[in-house]
Amino acid sequence: MTLDWITILGFFCIGQCLLLALIYFFKESKKLVSSYLLIALLLIFSFDLIHDTFVHSRIILQYPFFVGWASLFTFIKGPIIFFLVKSNIKRDFKFHRIDFLHLVVFFFKLIENIFTEIAHDREWKIAFLEKYYYMLDFNTQLVDVAFSWNDLWLLHPITYLVISLLHLFKKGRDTSIFDKKGVFWIRFFVIGYFVLYMLNIGLYIFSSFYPDINQIYWGFSSLQFSILIIIISYSSLNTQFYTSLLPKKTTYKSSNLTIEESLKILTKLDEFMIQSKPYLEKRLSLSQLSNLIDINSHHLSQVINENKNLNFQDYINQYRIEEAKNMISTKFVEEYTLESLSSEVGFNSSPSFYRAFKKFTSLTPAQYLKNINL
Question: Is the pTM of this model over 0.70?
Fold first, then answer.
């Protein structure tokens, strides 16, 4: 058994991953599709990390049962991440029958794997492991695990990651769908997974030609899942990431508003904000907005807090700042001043406009204007 820092980190992240999955499962009584998808992804990462850590540390010699299970969930992670992105972009996302076609490759490879790898008896697996580690220790060519054209199936997850990124970058431009920090974290996770997966595939291919690379392959494979679990763990603590999965504030504990009703109100609110631009009205209040869209003010406040993770004033100011950015980009300030711009987008005073602009863009209006003119 090899007990190094990668093994220790791996076991720590396995426990952390399982704990997160349990928290997400039991904490929310009314879970959205994105909740179940994230739970499934956490459990799969946990399983993969257990397998890879066992191989790296050679604990698998004591549990040869795990031989052949390495790629068991390889072909379902891509579709899960793709649907996770879609379900966070479209909050009323629902599965349709045609969506299950995305699982065809997974089930095909699962059946193939069961009959060609997992089905071997214990004696065969022990002999395989002993041969594998002997060849590994003496830097001998690992013929039995060499890269072949059949491994082009590994392009399947890459395809889904690329599609997910394209979908995310295209839809993520709409600030009414994603808040800024939410965009950052989900992009960071998908890009991070893409980079780590490509590095892992590269090591796998080169290990077939350079035996010494096999010394680090399983260590890196174990490390990649540890890193991904740490990313998810950290981002889940960020109040702007996967807000549908975070515990709801007790302020609305007694509310009778269902998830379906909440999503309908959210859709109606987003459409009204985009089409009618009520935020341009100075001193717009929660009660005024609730009257305009004919929604109970308490329910409206609940929907904004739980789905946008913003209070009412920040929610309105976010739209005002986006309007200001659009006006700056259309050369409004060439004819008027930044002070007049604050009034045009609904702020009562220039200081409140400057504070809100800095809060949502991390720049002052003048800095933002300078950047777009570069």
Answer: no
